[in-house]
Amino acid sequence: MENNPEKEEFLLNHSQNSTKGGLKTIPFIIVNESCEKVASFGLQPNMIIYITKFYNMDAARASVLISLWSAISNVLSILGAFISDSYIGRFRAVAIGTISSLIGMLVLWLTTIFPQLRPLPCGQYQHDCNGTTAAQLAAILFSFGLISIGAGFVRPCSLALGADQLENKENLDNERLIDSYFNWFYASEGVSVLLAVTVIVYIQDHFGWQVGFGVPALLMVLSLSVFLIGSPHYIKVIPQGSLFTGLFQVPVAAFRKRHINVQLNYSDDCYYKAPQSKLLEPSTDFRCLNRACIIEDPHMELKPDGKASDPWSLCSVEQVKIMKCFLTVLPMWSTCIMLLVSLSQPLSIYQLLTVDRHITPQFEIPAGSFGMITLLSLTIWFAFYDRALVPLLSRYTGLPTGISPFSKMGIGLIVGIVATVLSAITETIRRNKAINAGFEDDPNAVLNMSSMWFVPQLALYGVAEALNVVGQIEFIYSQFPKTMSSFAAALYTFGLALANLINSLLVSVVDSITSTGGKTSWLATNINRGHLDYYCWLMTSLCVINFLYFLAVCQFTDQHHHDGRSSLFPEAEEEHTANKRFHGA
User: What's domain 21-121+131-230's superfamily in CATH?
Assistant: First the structure.
Protein backbone atom coordinates (compact mmCIF):
# COMPACT_ATOMS: atom_id res chain seq x y z
CA MET A 1 0.00 0.00 0.00
CA GLU A 2 1.53 3.31 -1.14
CA ASN A 3 1.39 6.14 1.36
CA ASN A 4 0.77 9.73 0.29
CA PRO A 5 3.56 11.78 1.93
CA GLU A 6 1.58 15.04 1.83
CA LYS A 7 -1.48 13.43 3.38
CA GLU A 8 0.64 11.70 6.00
CA GLU A 9 2.31 15.01 6.87
CA PHE A 10 -1.09 16.64 7.27
CA LEU A 11 -2.37 13.90 9.51
CA LEU A 12 0.67 13.81 11.74
CA ASN A 13 1.35 17.56 11.91
CA HIS A 14 -2.05 19.18 11.75
CA SER A 15 -2.10 22.83 12.66
CA GLN A 16 -3.84 24.36 15.60
CA ASN A 17 -6.45 25.79 13.23
CA SER A 18 -7.47 22.32 12.01
CA THR A 19 -11.13 21.45 12.61
CA LYS A 20 -10.16 17.85 13.40
CA GLY A 21 -8.42 16.49 16.45
CA GLY A 22 -7.48 18.43 19.54
CA LEU A 23 -8.74 18.28 23.11
CA LYS A 24 -12.40 18.24 22.07
CA THR A 25 -12.02 14.62 20.85
CA ILE A 26 -10.42 13.27 24.05
CA PRO A 27 -13.65 12.91 26.12
CA PHE A 28 -15.17 10.69 23.40
CA ILE A 29 -12.13 8.38 23.44
CA ILE A 30 -11.81 8.22 27.23
CA VAL A 31 -15.55 7.51 27.68
CA ASN A 32 -15.32 4.73 25.09
CA GLU A 33 -12.33 3.11 26.82
CA SER A 34 -13.77 3.58 30.33
CA CYS A 35 -17.14 2.02 29.48
CA GLU A 36 -15.41 -0.95 27.84
CA LYS A 37 -13.23 -1.41 30.93
CA VAL A 38 -16.15 -1.23 33.38
CA ALA A 39 -18.25 -3.61 31.29
CA SER A 40 -15.62 -6.27 30.56
CA PHE A 41 -13.83 -6.22 33.94
CA GLY A 42 -17.17 -6.25 35.74
CA LEU A 43 -17.99 -9.60 34.17
CA GLN A 44 -14.86 -11.43 35.32
CA PRO A 45 -15.00 -11.69 39.15
CA ASN A 46 -18.34 -13.55 39.35
CA MET A 47 -18.14 -15.40 36.02
CA ILE A 48 -16.92 -18.63 37.64
CA ILE A 49 -20.04 -18.62 39.86
CA TYR A 50 -22.31 -18.13 36.84
CA ILE A 51 -20.65 -20.94 34.86
CA THR A 52 -20.62 -23.48 37.69
CA LYS A 53 -24.21 -22.68 38.69
CA PHE A 54 -25.91 -22.45 35.29
CA TYR A 55 -23.68 -24.59 33.05
CA ASN A 56 -23.13 -27.41 35.55
CA MET A 57 -19.33 -27.31 35.34
CA ASP A 58 -17.12 -28.17 38.26
CA ALA A 59 -15.01 -25.35 39.65
CA ALA A 60 -11.72 -26.59 38.16
CA ARG A 61 -13.09 -26.77 34.60
CA ALA A 62 -14.72 -23.36 34.98
CA SER A 63 -11.44 -21.91 36.25
CA VAL A 64 -9.60 -23.32 33.22
CA LEU A 65 -12.21 -21.85 30.87
CA ILE A 66 -11.93 -18.38 32.41
CA SER A 67 -8.11 -18.51 32.35
CA LEU A 68 -8.19 -19.41 28.66
CA TRP A 69 -10.64 -16.56 28.04
CA SER A 70 -8.25 -14.11 29.70
CA ALA A 71 -5.29 -15.54 27.78
CA ILE A 72 -7.06 -15.15 24.44
CA SER A 73 -8.04 -11.57 25.29
CA ASN A 74 -4.41 -10.67 26.05
CA VAL A 75 -3.04 -12.38 22.94
CA LEU A 76 -5.62 -10.62 20.79
CA SER A 77 -4.48 -7.28 22.27
CA ILE A 78 -1.08 -7.79 20.62
CA LEU A 79 -2.68 -9.02 17.40
CA GLY A 80 -5.13 -6.12 17.42
CA ALA A 81 -2.30 -3.60 17.75
CA PHE A 82 -0.48 -5.23 14.84
CA ILE A 83 -3.56 -5.24 12.57
CA SER A 84 -4.32 -1.64 13.51
CA ASP A 85 -0.81 -0.36 12.79
CA SER A 86 -0.40 -2.36 9.59
CA TYR A 87 -3.79 -2.49 7.89
CA ILE A 88 -6.94 -0.85 9.22
CA GLY A 89 -5.83 2.09 11.37
CA ARG A 90 -6.70 2.88 14.98
CA PHE A 91 -10.12 4.42 14.43
CA ARG A 92 -11.47 1.38 12.59
CA ALA A 93 -9.83 -0.95 15.12
CA VAL A 94 -11.55 0.76 18.07
CA ALA A 95 -14.88 0.88 16.20
CA ILE A 96 -14.72 -2.82 15.28
CA GLY A 97 -13.67 -3.75 18.81
CA THR A 98 -16.47 -1.78 20.43
CA ILE A 99 -19.09 -3.35 18.16
CA SER A 100 -17.67 -6.83 18.80
CA SER A 101 -17.75 -6.33 22.59
CA LEU A 102 -21.32 -5.03 22.40
CA ILE A 103 -22.56 -8.07 20.44
CA GLY A 104 -20.68 -10.43 22.77
CA MET A 105 -22.23 -8.91 25.88
CA LEU A 106 -25.68 -8.98 24.32
CA VAL A 107 -25.27 -12.70 23.62
CA LEU A 108 -24.08 -13.27 27.19
CA TRP A 109 -27.07 -11.31 28.51
CA LEU A 110 -29.41 -13.42 26.37
CA THR A 111 -28.15 -16.57 28.10
CA THR A 112 -29.70 -15.19 31.30
CA ILE A 113 -33.02 -14.42 29.55
CA PHE A 114 -33.72 -17.61 27.59
CA PRO A 115 -33.56 -20.89 29.55
CA GLN A 116 -33.00 -22.77 26.28
CA LEU A 117 -29.47 -21.35 26.20
CA ARG A 118 -28.63 -23.03 29.53
CA PRO A 119 -28.83 -26.65 30.73
CA LEU A 120 -31.44 -27.62 33.30
CA PRO A 121 -30.32 -26.95 36.88
CA CYS A 122 -28.79 -29.69 39.02
CA GLY A 123 -30.76 -31.55 41.63
CA GLN A 124 -30.59 -30.67 45.29
CA TYR A 125 -27.46 -32.73 45.98
CA GLN A 126 -25.96 -32.35 42.49
CA HIS A 127 -26.18 -36.06 41.71
CA ASP A 128 -28.42 -35.71 38.65
CA CYS A 129 -26.84 -32.78 36.76
CA ASN A 130 -27.79 -32.42 33.13
CA GLY A 131 -24.97 -32.06 30.66
CA THR A 132 -24.50 -28.89 28.63
CA THR A 133 -25.39 -29.37 24.97
CA ALA A 134 -23.04 -28.31 22.18
CA ALA A 135 -25.36 -25.46 21.19
CA GLN A 136 -25.58 -24.14 24.76
CA LEU A 137 -21.81 -24.29 25.20
CA ALA A 138 -21.32 -22.66 21.79
CA ALA A 139 -23.53 -19.72 22.81
CA ILE A 140 -21.48 -18.75 25.85
CA LEU A 141 -18.16 -19.46 24.10
CA PHE A 142 -19.31 -17.29 21.19
CA SER A 143 -20.00 -14.43 23.60
CA PHE A 144 -16.59 -14.88 25.24
CA GLY A 145 -14.90 -14.87 21.83
CA LEU A 146 -16.58 -11.65 20.71
CA ILE A 147 -15.74 -9.91 24.01
CA SER A 148 -12.09 -11.01 23.62
CA ILE A 149 -11.95 -9.70 20.05
CA GLY A 150 -13.41 -6.41 21.26
CA ALA A 151 -10.87 -6.09 24.06
CA GLY A 152 -8.09 -7.01 21.64
CA PHE A 153 -8.90 -4.06 19.38
CA VAL A 154 -10.04 -1.42 21.88
CA ARG A 155 -7.44 -1.65 24.65
CA PRO A 156 -4.19 -1.33 22.67
CA CYS A 157 -5.55 1.27 20.23
CA SER A 158 -7.53 3.73 22.35
CA LEU A 159 -4.49 5.31 24.01
CA ALA A 160 -2.68 5.75 20.68
CA LEU A 161 -5.82 7.09 18.98
CA GLY A 162 -6.04 9.84 21.61
CA ALA A 163 -2.35 10.67 21.17
CA ASP A 164 -2.97 11.02 17.41
CA GLN A 165 -5.52 13.75 18.15
CA LEU A 166 -2.98 15.78 20.13
CA GLU A 167 0.09 15.33 17.93
CA ASN A 168 0.98 18.86 16.86
CA LYS A 169 4.62 19.77 16.30
CA GLU A 170 3.74 23.46 15.99
CA ASN A 171 2.65 23.53 19.64
CA LEU A 172 5.60 24.04 21.99
CA ASP A 173 3.61 22.56 24.89
CA ASN A 174 2.60 19.49 22.90
CA GLU A 175 4.70 17.04 24.91
CA ARG A 176 3.28 18.33 28.21
CA LEU A 177 -0.23 18.09 26.75
CA ILE A 178 0.26 14.48 25.71
CA ASP A 179 1.74 13.60 29.12
CA SER A 180 -1.31 15.16 30.75
CA TYR A 181 -3.53 13.10 28.47
CA PHE A 182 -1.67 9.92 29.48
CA ASN A 183 -2.22 10.79 33.15
CA TRP A 184 -5.96 11.30 32.66
CA PHE A 185 -6.25 8.18 30.53
CA TYR A 186 -4.56 5.92 33.09
CA ALA A 187 -6.50 7.55 35.92
CA SER A 188 -9.76 6.82 34.10
CA GLU A 189 -8.64 3.22 33.63
CA GLY A 190 -8.00 2.83 37.35
CA VAL A 191 -11.37 4.33 38.28
CA SER A 192 -13.07 2.12 35.67
CA VAL A 193 -11.59 -1.10 37.05
CA LEU A 194 -12.49 -0.02 40.60
CA LEU A 195 -16.10 0.61 39.53
CA ALA A 196 -16.15 -2.73 37.73
CA VAL A 197 -15.13 -4.82 40.74
CA THR A 198 -17.38 -2.91 43.14
CA VAL A 199 -20.52 -1.50 41.51
CA ILE A 200 -21.02 -4.10 38.74
CA VAL A 201 -20.27 -7.00 41.08
CA TYR A 202 -22.65 -5.55 43.70
CA ILE A 203 -25.40 -5.31 41.07
CA GLN A 204 -24.87 -8.96 40.09
CA ASP A 205 -25.03 -10.10 43.71
CA HIS A 206 -28.11 -8.10 44.71
CA PHE A 207 -30.17 -7.75 41.51
CA GLY A 208 -29.47 -11.02 39.74
CA TRP A 209 -27.71 -12.05 36.56
CA GLN A 210 -30.17 -10.51 34.11
CA VAL A 211 -29.60 -7.03 35.51
CA GLY A 212 -25.95 -7.77 36.34
CA PHE A 213 -25.15 -8.72 32.73
CA GLY A 214 -27.60 -6.22 31.25
CA VAL A 215 -25.82 -3.19 32.75
CA PRO A 216 -22.47 -4.01 31.03
CA ALA A 217 -24.34 -4.42 27.74
CA LEU A 218 -25.94 -0.98 28.22
CA LEU A 219 -22.51 0.47 28.99
CA MET A 220 -21.24 -0.88 25.67
CA VAL A 221 -24.20 0.74 23.88
CA LEU A 222 -23.15 4.02 25.51
CA SER A 223 -19.51 3.37 24.61
CA LEU A 224 -20.28 2.80 20.93
CA SER A 225 -22.70 5.74 20.71
CA VAL A 226 -20.28 8.23 22.24
CA PHE A 227 -17.38 6.99 20.12
CA LEU A 228 -19.34 7.29 16.86
CA ILE A 229 -20.69 10.73 17.79
CA GLY A 230 -17.10 11.95 17.93
CA SER A 231 -16.17 10.27 14.62
CA PRO A 232 -16.39 13.40 12.40
CA HIS A 233 -13.85 15.19 14.61
CA TYR A 234 -11.16 12.46 14.79
CA ILE A 235 -7.82 12.56 13.01
CA LYS A 236 -7.56 9.16 11.37
CA VAL A 237 -3.91 8.41 10.74
CA ILE A 238 -3.12 6.16 7.78
CA PRO A 239 -1.62 2.81 8.94
CA GLN A 240 2.15 2.93 8.41
CA GLY A 241 3.07 -0.64 9.28
CA SER A 242 3.97 -2.20 12.61
CA LEU A 243 7.41 -1.94 14.18
CA PHE A 244 6.99 -5.53 15.35
CA THR A 245 7.05 -6.80 11.76
CA GLY A 246 10.82 -6.32 11.82
CA LEU A 247 11.12 -8.90 14.58
CA PHE A 248 9.72 -11.54 12.24
CA GLN A 249 11.68 -10.33 9.21
CA VAL A 250 15.10 -10.72 10.86
CA PRO A 251 15.00 -14.49 11.57
CA VAL A 252 13.36 -15.13 8.18
CA ALA A 253 16.07 -13.17 6.34
CA ALA A 254 18.81 -14.84 8.40
CA PHE A 255 17.40 -18.27 7.57
CA ARG A 256 17.24 -17.46 3.86
CA LYS A 257 20.92 -16.49 4.00
CA ARG A 258 21.99 -19.38 6.18
CA HIS A 259 24.72 -20.30 3.67
CA ILE A 260 26.68 -17.12 4.56
CA ASN A 261 29.73 -17.65 6.76
CA VAL A 262 29.34 -15.11 9.57
CA GLN A 263 32.79 -15.95 10.93
CA LEU A 264 34.36 -13.90 8.15
CA ASN A 265 35.15 -10.22 8.66
CA TYR A 266 32.98 -7.98 6.50
CA SER A 267 33.55 -4.30 5.80
CA ASP A 268 30.97 -1.74 6.88
CA ASP A 269 29.79 -1.36 3.29
CA CYS A 270 28.60 -4.97 3.27
CA TYR A 271 25.91 -4.26 5.84
CA TYR A 272 22.56 -2.69 4.99
CA LYS A 273 21.96 0.39 7.16
CA ALA A 274 19.00 2.70 7.54
CA PRO A 275 19.46 6.33 6.40
CA GLN A 276 21.39 8.50 8.89
CA SER A 277 22.16 5.44 10.97
CA LYS A 278 24.84 5.64 13.65
CA LEU A 279 25.23 1.86 13.67
CA LEU A 280 27.85 0.76 11.16
CA GLU A 281 27.94 -2.97 11.85
CA PRO A 282 26.06 -5.53 14.00
CA SER A 283 27.37 -6.76 17.33
CA THR A 284 29.02 -10.15 17.78
CA ASP A 285 26.42 -11.68 20.10
CA PHE A 286 23.76 -13.85 18.44
CA ARG A 287 26.06 -13.73 15.43
CA CYS A 288 23.87 -16.02 13.34
CA LEU A 289 21.36 -13.19 12.98
CA ASN A 290 23.98 -10.96 11.33
CA ARG A 291 23.32 -12.77 8.07
CA ALA A 292 20.02 -10.86 7.79
CA CYS A 293 21.79 -7.52 7.18
CA ILE A 294 24.62 -8.68 4.90
CA ILE A 295 24.31 -7.46 1.31
CA GLU A 296 25.29 -10.19 -1.16
CA ASP A 297 24.20 -8.59 -4.44
CA PRO A 298 23.51 -4.83 -4.29
CA HIS A 299 21.89 -4.82 -7.74
CA MET A 300 19.35 -7.48 -6.78
CA GLU A 301 18.78 -6.62 -3.13
CA LEU A 302 18.66 -2.80 -3.26
CA LYS A 303 16.33 -0.44 -5.08
CA PRO A 304 17.69 2.64 -6.89
CA ASP A 305 16.81 4.76 -3.82
CA GLY A 306 18.92 2.50 -1.61
CA LYS A 307 16.02 0.73 0.15
CA ALA A 308 15.79 -3.05 0.43
CA SER A 309 13.95 -4.72 -2.46
CA ASP A 310 12.61 -7.45 -0.20
CA PRO A 311 12.54 -6.68 3.56
CA TRP A 312 12.07 -10.39 4.23
CA SER A 313 15.44 -11.11 2.61
CA LEU A 314 17.48 -8.09 3.70
CA CYS A 315 17.11 -6.24 7.00
CA SER A 316 18.89 -3.21 8.37
CA VAL A 317 21.53 -3.32 11.09
CA GLU A 318 19.01 -1.55 13.36
CA GLN A 319 16.44 -4.33 12.87
CA VAL A 320 19.02 -6.95 13.74
CA LYS A 321 19.99 -4.98 16.85
CA ILE A 322 16.35 -4.75 17.97
CA MET A 323 15.92 -8.50 17.50
CA LYS A 324 19.01 -9.06 19.63
CA CYS A 325 17.58 -6.75 22.28
CA PHE A 326 14.44 -8.87 22.29
CA LEU A 327 16.44 -12.07 22.81
CA THR A 328 18.47 -10.35 25.56
CA VAL A 329 15.44 -9.33 27.65
CA LEU A 330 13.52 -12.60 27.21
CA PRO A 331 15.14 -14.47 30.16
CA MET A 332 14.52 -11.60 32.60
CA TRP A 333 10.98 -11.11 31.28
CA SER A 334 10.21 -14.79 31.84
CA THR A 335 10.94 -14.47 35.58
CA CYS A 336 7.74 -12.43 36.13
CA ILE A 337 5.38 -15.03 34.70
CA MET A 338 5.13 -17.22 37.80
CA LEU A 339 4.25 -14.19 39.92
CA LEU A 340 1.42 -13.40 37.51
CA VAL A 341 0.28 -17.03 37.77
CA SER A 342 0.17 -16.83 41.57
CA LEU A 343 -1.93 -13.65 41.38
CA SER A 344 -4.78 -15.55 39.68
CA GLN A 345 -5.58 -18.03 42.44
CA PRO A 346 -8.34 -20.44 41.34
CA LEU A 347 -11.42 -20.80 43.53
CA SER A 348 -10.50 -17.79 45.69
CA ILE A 349 -14.05 -16.47 45.34
CA TYR A 350 -15.35 -19.74 46.87
CA GLN A 351 -13.16 -19.13 49.91
CA LEU A 352 -14.62 -15.66 50.36
CA LEU A 353 -18.18 -16.96 50.03
CA THR A 354 -17.66 -19.13 53.13
CA VAL A 355 -16.49 -16.38 55.50
CA ASP A 356 -18.15 -13.41 57.16
CA ARG A 357 -17.86 -10.43 54.80
CA HIS A 358 -19.97 -7.97 56.78
CA ILE A 359 -18.54 -4.51 57.42
CA THR A 360 -21.67 -3.45 59.28
CA PRO A 361 -24.71 -5.56 60.23
CA GLN A 362 -26.46 -4.20 57.12
CA PHE A 363 -23.63 -4.12 54.55
CA GLU A 364 -21.70 -7.09 53.21
CA ILE A 365 -18.79 -6.81 50.76
CA PRO A 366 -19.46 -8.90 47.63
CA ALA A 367 -17.01 -11.78 47.34
CA GLY A 368 -16.07 -10.71 43.82
CA SER A 369 -15.11 -7.21 45.00
CA PHE A 370 -12.13 -8.24 47.11
CA GLY A 371 -9.89 -7.76 44.09
CA MET A 372 -10.12 -4.03 44.80
CA ILE A 373 -7.81 -4.60 47.79
CA THR A 374 -5.01 -5.61 45.42
CA LEU A 375 -5.80 -2.66 43.16
CA LEU A 376 -5.84 -0.17 46.06
CA SER A 377 -2.66 -1.65 47.51
CA LEU A 378 -0.92 -1.30 44.15
CA THR A 379 -2.08 2.31 43.78
CA ILE A 380 -1.13 3.32 47.34
CA TRP A 381 2.28 1.70 46.95
CA PHE A 382 2.92 3.62 43.72
CA ALA A 383 2.18 6.92 45.45
CA PHE A 384 4.13 6.06 48.63
CA TYR A 385 7.17 4.79 46.72
CA ASP A 386 7.25 7.71 44.28
CA ARG A 387 6.72 10.48 46.84
CA ALA A 388 8.36 9.11 49.97
CA LEU A 389 10.81 6.29 49.22
CA VAL A 390 12.37 7.47 45.94
CA PRO A 391 13.78 10.76 47.37
CA LEU A 392 15.11 8.89 50.41
CA LEU A 393 16.63 5.96 48.53
CA SER A 394 18.09 8.18 45.81
CA ARG A 395 20.36 9.85 48.38
CA TYR A 396 22.04 6.51 49.07
CA THR A 397 21.90 4.79 45.67
CA GLY A 398 22.31 7.79 43.36
CA LEU A 399 19.61 6.33 41.10
CA PRO A 400 16.71 8.58 40.03
CA THR A 401 14.30 5.68 40.52
CA GLY A 402 15.47 4.90 44.06
CA ILE A 403 16.63 1.33 43.47
CA SER A 404 17.62 -0.59 40.36
CA PRO A 405 15.08 -2.48 38.22
CA PHE A 406 16.69 -5.79 39.29
CA SER A 407 16.19 -4.92 42.96
CA LYS A 408 12.54 -4.04 42.34
CA MET A 409 11.94 -7.30 40.52
CA GLY A 410 13.64 -9.38 43.18
CA ILE A 411 11.84 -7.69 46.10
CA GLY A 412 8.57 -8.06 44.19
CA LEU A 413 9.15 -11.81 43.81
CA ILE A 414 9.97 -12.17 47.53
CA VAL A 415 6.83 -10.25 48.53
CA GLY A 416 4.84 -12.49 46.15
CA ILE A 417 6.24 -15.60 47.87
CA VAL A 418 5.24 -14.22 51.28
CA ALA A 419 1.73 -13.52 49.95
CA THR A 420 1.42 -17.08 48.62
CA VAL A 421 2.58 -18.51 51.97
CA LEU A 422 -0.06 -16.40 53.73
CA SER A 423 -2.73 -17.66 51.31
CA ALA A 424 -1.79 -21.28 52.13
CA ILE A 425 -1.85 -20.65 55.89
CA THR A 426 -5.16 -18.77 55.69
CA GLU A 427 -6.81 -21.56 53.68
CA THR A 428 -5.55 -24.18 56.13
CA ILE A 429 -7.14 -22.24 59.00
CA ARG A 430 -10.37 -21.72 57.05
CA ARG A 431 -10.67 -25.39 56.08
CA ASN A 432 -9.99 -26.63 59.63
CA LYS A 433 -12.65 -24.28 60.97
CA ALA A 434 -15.14 -25.59 58.42
CA ILE A 435 -14.45 -29.23 59.29
CA ASN A 436 -14.50 -28.61 63.04
CA ALA A 437 -17.85 -26.84 62.65
CA GLY A 438 -19.29 -29.88 60.83
CA PHE A 439 -19.51 -28.15 57.42
CA GLU A 440 -17.38 -30.62 55.47
CA ASP A 441 -20.33 -31.50 53.21
CA ASP A 442 -21.86 -28.02 53.23
CA PRO A 443 -19.72 -25.68 51.05
CA ASN A 444 -22.38 -22.96 51.26
CA ALA A 445 -22.17 -22.60 55.05
CA VAL A 446 -20.74 -19.32 56.36
CA LEU A 447 -18.05 -19.76 59.00
CA ASN A 448 -17.45 -17.71 62.12
CA MET A 449 -14.35 -16.30 60.47
CA SER A 450 -13.79 -12.75 59.26
CA SER A 451 -12.94 -12.04 55.64
CA MET A 452 -10.23 -9.71 56.95
CA TRP A 453 -8.00 -12.79 57.17
CA PHE A 454 -7.62 -12.50 53.39
CA VAL A 455 -6.70 -8.81 53.31
CA PRO A 456 -2.93 -9.15 54.05
CA GLN A 457 -2.28 -11.60 51.22
CA LEU A 458 -4.32 -9.55 48.72
CA ALA A 459 -2.53 -6.34 49.74
CA LEU A 460 0.88 -8.01 49.43
CA TYR A 461 -0.01 -9.26 45.95
CA GLY A 462 -0.63 -5.64 44.95
CA VAL A 463 2.78 -4.53 46.28
CA ALA A 464 4.48 -7.51 44.61
CA GLU A 465 2.92 -6.73 41.25
CA ALA A 466 3.76 -3.02 41.52
CA LEU A 467 7.42 -3.70 42.29
CA ASN A 468 8.02 -6.52 39.84
CA VAL A 469 6.09 -5.19 36.85
CA VAL A 470 7.54 -1.67 37.09
CA GLY A 471 11.03 -3.15 37.44
CA GLN A 472 10.41 -5.29 34.37
CA ILE A 473 9.22 -2.35 32.27
CA GLU A 474 12.11 -0.12 33.40
CA PHE A 475 14.61 -2.85 32.47
CA ILE A 476 13.04 -3.41 29.05
CA TYR A 477 12.91 0.34 28.42
CA SER A 478 16.63 0.62 29.13
CA GLN A 479 17.40 -1.93 26.42
CA PHE A 480 15.37 -0.51 23.54
CA PRO A 481 15.42 2.79 21.65
CA LYS A 482 12.64 5.29 22.25
CA THR A 483 10.84 4.27 19.06
CA MET A 484 10.27 0.82 20.54
CA SER A 485 9.04 1.99 23.97
CA SER A 486 5.62 0.38 23.40
CA PHE A 487 7.41 -2.97 23.26
CA ALA A 488 7.56 -3.10 27.07
CA ALA A 489 3.76 -2.94 27.33
CA ALA A 490 3.42 -5.57 24.58
CA LEU A 491 5.76 -7.94 26.42
CA TYR A 492 3.85 -7.43 29.67
CA THR A 493 0.57 -8.17 27.89
CA PHE A 494 2.05 -11.31 26.36
CA GLY A 495 3.29 -12.29 29.83
CA LEU A 496 -0.27 -12.03 31.14
CA ALA A 497 -1.48 -14.27 28.33
CA LEU A 498 1.23 -16.84 29.02
CA ALA A 499 0.48 -16.72 32.76
CA ASN A 500 -3.19 -17.41 32.06
CA LEU A 501 -2.26 -20.39 29.88
CA ILE A 502 0.11 -21.78 32.51
CA ASN A 503 -2.56 -21.28 35.17
CA SER A 504 -5.15 -23.20 33.14
CA LEU A 505 -2.63 -26.00 32.45
CA LEU A 506 -1.62 -26.18 36.11
CA VAL A 507 -5.22 -26.34 37.32
CA SER A 508 -6.04 -29.07 34.76
CA VAL A 509 -3.02 -31.20 35.69
CA VAL A 510 -3.51 -30.85 39.46
CA ASP A 511 -7.24 -31.56 39.20
CA SER A 512 -6.63 -34.62 37.01
CA ILE A 513 -3.85 -36.10 39.13
CA THR A 514 -5.42 -35.50 42.55
CA SER A 515 -8.83 -36.88 41.51
CA THR A 516 -7.54 -40.23 40.21
CA GLY A 517 -8.97 -43.36 41.78
CA GLY A 518 -12.17 -41.58 42.78
CA LYS A 519 -10.42 -39.35 45.30
CA THR A 520 -11.58 -35.82 45.99
CA SER A 521 -9.66 -33.34 43.90
CA TRP A 522 -7.60 -30.66 45.62
CA LEU A 523 -9.62 -28.20 43.53
CA ALA A 524 -13.06 -29.66 44.18
CA THR A 525 -16.06 -27.32 43.95
CA ASN A 526 -16.71 -28.18 47.60
CA ILE A 527 -13.55 -26.55 48.91
CA ASN A 528 -14.22 -27.91 52.41
CA ARG A 529 -13.56 -31.43 51.09
CA GLY A 530 -10.85 -30.39 48.65
CA HIS A 531 -7.36 -29.22 49.53
CA LEU A 532 -6.92 -25.74 48.13
CA ASP A 533 -4.27 -25.24 50.82
CA TYR A 534 -2.12 -27.95 49.21
CA TYR A 535 -2.44 -26.16 45.88
CA CYS A 536 -1.27 -22.92 47.54
CA TRP A 537 1.78 -24.70 48.96
CA LEU A 538 2.49 -26.12 45.51
CA MET A 539 2.29 -22.59 44.10
CA THR A 540 4.66 -21.40 46.85
CA SER A 541 7.20 -24.05 45.88
CA LEU A 542 7.01 -23.02 42.22
CA CYS A 543 7.48 -19.36 43.20
CA VAL A 544 10.58 -20.23 45.23
CA ILE A 545 12.02 -22.15 42.26
CA ASN A 546 11.21 -19.19 40.06
CA PHE A 547 13.09 -16.88 42.45
CA LEU A 548 16.19 -19.09 42.20
CA TYR A 549 15.82 -18.92 38.43
CA PHE A 550 15.61 -15.13 38.72
CA LEU A 551 18.90 -15.06 40.65
CA ALA A 552 20.55 -17.13 37.91
CA VAL A 553 19.23 -14.79 35.22
CA CYS A 554 20.50 -11.79 37.22
CA GLN A 555 23.95 -13.37 37.31
CA PHE A 556 23.89 -13.85 33.53
CA THR A 557 22.58 -10.33 32.92
CA ASP A 558 25.15 -8.83 35.29
CA GLN A 559 27.95 -10.52 33.32
CA HIS A 560 26.34 -9.17 30.14
CA HIS A 561 26.47 -5.64 31.60
CA HIS A 562 30.10 -5.99 32.69
CA ASP A 563 30.95 -6.92 29.11
CA GLY A 564 29.97 -3.36 28.20
CA ARG A 565 26.69 -4.33 26.55
CA SER A 566 24.13 -3.13 29.06
CA SER A 567 22.10 -1.82 26.14
CA LEU A 568 22.58 -2.63 22.50
CA PHE A 569 21.37 0.92 21.90
CA PRO A 570 23.60 3.18 24.04
CA GLU A 571 21.22 6.10 23.62
CA ALA A 572 18.31 4.09 25.03
CA GLU A 573 19.20 4.44 28.71
CA GLU A 574 19.83 8.18 28.35
CA GLU A 575 16.48 8.68 26.58
CA HIS A 576 14.47 6.92 29.26
CA THR A 577 16.21 8.03 32.45
CA ALA A 578 13.82 10.93 33.01
CA ASN A 579 10.55 9.25 32.15
CA LYS A 580 10.80 5.49 32.53
CA ARG A 581 9.35 5.52 36.06
CA PHE A 582 6.28 7.42 34.83
CA HIS A 583 5.67 5.06 31.92
CA GLY A 584 6.39 2.00 34.06
CA ALA A 585 3.73 3.06 36.56
Answer: MFS general substrate transporter like domains (1.20.1250.20)
